[in-house]
C-alpha cells in the first residue's frame, strides 16, 4: 500500500501562465516526504535535532504528464521501492482525479549531521518505511 | 560552448541543516533558463505576453553529487543537447569551484497559451538556442 | 468571532538558524487569507477567473513577538476590523499554544483585473466577510 | 547616502494575476539586507557561523503603492534610520524607474544564537551600518 496524502495547489504555487510552478511541486513533495515519516511516528524534527541525522536527496527523476491549475487537489501516492542500508528509493505518482499529473523517482540517503557520512537506518525508522514497501522489479530508480 | 552564469546560494535558499533546500535549486534553475533566452535577445516576458507561448517542463533528471552551503557561488553551465521541432533538451552542470554539485537534464516544450498544444520554435528563438548546441551522442535525456 | 485555522511550521519554512523564515510566514498568511474566503463559499479562483477581480494588498504592519521553530503548530486568528466599499482591514494574531508569535494588520483592496481600479465588494463576498466583523475602536490599520 | 541595489522581478516572483507575489518581495528584501552587510565586508555567514549571532526581524511596516509586473527592475534604496545598542532601524524605498512601488520600515535586532538574547553590535558592524545612517526626525519605525 502506498502512503497517500492530498494537497490543494495553492495560489502561491502557480506561475503567471496559470499553471503550477515546478519548484512549488518540489516544495509540496518535501512536505509529503516529511508526512510519510510522521505517519509511522518518527518526525524529521526528531531525526534532525535529537538524532542529529539529515536526509539529503541523491537523485530525482521527474516526468510532468499534465499541467495542474490553481485549485486542483493533488493526491500523492508514495511507493517505497527499496530500503537500503542507509538509502531509500521512493516512487511517487501524483494525480488529480483520474489523471496522472506527474511522477517522481527519488533516492534519499540518511547521513550523520556530525560526520556528513551515510549512516544505517535505525530499526524503528526502517520498520516504519517498510510498511509502505512495494518493490517494483521492472522499475529502476537511478 | 555552454551558456554560463553564476549565482550565490542565498540565506533563504538554505534549510535548517545548513545546506541548500532542493526546491530552491529548482527556483535558481528557472532563473538560469530565463537568462539563457535573454542572452540571445528574446525575453520570456515577450514569449509569454506578446507571443502567447509557454515553456512547460516535460522531464527533469537530477543528480545531487555534493551539498552546497550558504555563501557558495554556484556556476551553472547549460549545454543545449537538442533543439527539436517544439522541444528543447538541456543538460546543466552546476559547480562550486572545481566540484560538481549537481547536474540536471531537462526537457522543455514550447506551447501555445491559447490552444495548450506544442508549437514549433520561431526562427529567432531556434537560432538563439542553437548558439549553445552541443549534441551529446552518448547522453540521453528522458 | 475570528476566522481560525492552524498550520504547522514546515521544514521548508525554516531558515538555517532554525527559526521561521519571515517570507514563509507571509506565504502561510496568503493561504490563511484564501481559506477565510473559501470558508464562506467564495474561492479566490472564482473571484480571479470567473469574476475577473484581484485582491492586492495595500499595507501590512507586522510585529514579531517570539520566534517559532520547526514543528510548531501556528494558529491564525483573523479578525475582520473593517469592510469598506472596496477595501478590507484584517488583524491576525498568530499563536503557538498560549504564546503570541506574531501579529499583522493588513489592508487589502478589491480591484478589477481589466481596469486595474478598485471595485466594490459584491454582496455575497461582503456578507461573508462581515461574518467575521469585529471592529476595534481603539485599533487603527494604516 | 542610502545603500542601493537593483533586482529584476523574476518569473517565479509573480502570481497568476501577473503581478508580484508579496512573499517574493520579502524574500528579495532578505537578499537586499544581506547585501548591505556584505557591502561593508561583514557577511551574514560570518555573523551566523563564526560569531554565532542571528538577525531576527522585530517589526515591518509595508506600504504597497503600485504593482510591479514581470520584468520590472526594482531598485531598493535602504536608509539606515537608527543604530541602537543591539537594534537596527531601516527604511527602504523600492522604485521602478521614477515610480515608488513599495516602502518598508523594518526593525531588526542582533541576538546570540546561544543565549537567544539581544547582544550589542560589534564595533566593525556598527561602523559599517553607520556609513548609511540618515536619521529621519519625522519618521517613526514601530
TrEMBL record, chains A, B, C, D:
<protein>
    <submittedName>
        <fullName>Acyl-CoA thioesterase</fullName>
        <ecNumber>3.1.2.-</ecNumber>
    </submittedName>
</protein>
<dbReference type="InterPro" id="IPR029069">
    <property type="entry name" value="HotDog_dom_sf"/>
</dbReference>
<dbReference type="InterPro" id="IPR050563">
    <property type="entry name" value="4-hydroxybenzoyl-CoA_TE"/>
</dbReference>
<dbReference type="GO" id="GO:0016787">
    <property type="term" value="F:hydrolase activity"/>
</dbReference>
<keyword id="KW-0378">Hydrolase</keyword>
<dbReference type="Pfam" id="PF13279">
    <property type="entry name" value="4HBT_2"/>
</dbReference>
Amino acid at each position: 500500500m502506498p502512503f497517500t496524502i492530498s494537497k490543494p495547489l495553492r495560489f502561491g504555487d502557480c506561475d503567471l501562465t496559470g499553471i503550477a510552478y515546478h519548484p512549488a511541486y518540489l516544495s509540496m513533495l518535501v512536505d509529503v516526504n516529511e508526512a510519510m515519516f510522521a505517519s509511522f511516528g518518527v518526525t524529521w524534527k526528531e531525526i534532525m535535532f535529537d538524532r542529529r541525522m539529515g536526509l539529503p536527496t541523491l537523485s530525482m527523476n521527474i516526468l510532468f504528464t499534465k499541467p495542474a491549475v490553481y485549485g486542483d487537489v493533488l493526491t500523492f501516492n508514495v511507493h517505497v521501492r527499496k530500503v537500503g542500508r542507509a538509502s531509500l528509493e521512493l516512487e511517487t505518482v501524483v494525480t488529480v482525479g483520474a489523471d496522472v499529473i506527474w511522477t517522481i523517482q527519488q533516492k534519499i540517503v540518511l547521513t550523520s549531521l556530525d560526520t556528513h557520512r551515510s549512516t544505517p537506518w535505525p530499526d524503528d525508522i526502517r520498520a516504519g518505511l517498510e510498511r509502505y514497501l512495494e518493490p517494483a522489479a521492472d522499475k529502476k530508480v537511478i
